[in-house]
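Example record used in the benchmark description.
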Amino acid sequence: MHSKEEKLSLLSEMIQFAKADKKFKEQEYNFIMAIASQLKITKEEVDTLIEEGVEKKNLQPESQRILQFHRLVLLMNIDQETSQLEIHKIKEIGLYMGLRLEAVDMVLEKMQEYPNKVIPPKVLISIFTRFYN
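Model output (structure tokens):
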């Protein structure tokens, strides 16, 4: 499992991504709180992250980076409004995580085929497996 620092970094990254379009919506906050709850991070800690953020920690192993990328894709689509800014930002984050651009592009393309753009985890994993084998 992740250290407390890694968990806070994950959530901080999600918060920064949610704020990328200058609109931090209630649905996005609620989604982040659901993830925080799974990670055993309190509301107070999340609210502090919203105000202050934390130092970014790169996740190891790659499976954790893919899981975080999936969380970001879900967050991006939570309000059913995907802007070009969000697409650009999520690609940038994926590259920073060390994910292959081809896999990131395929995920963004494939999500269009699913209700509410929620790409199933198995499909996501198969995309990344395809590009890493």
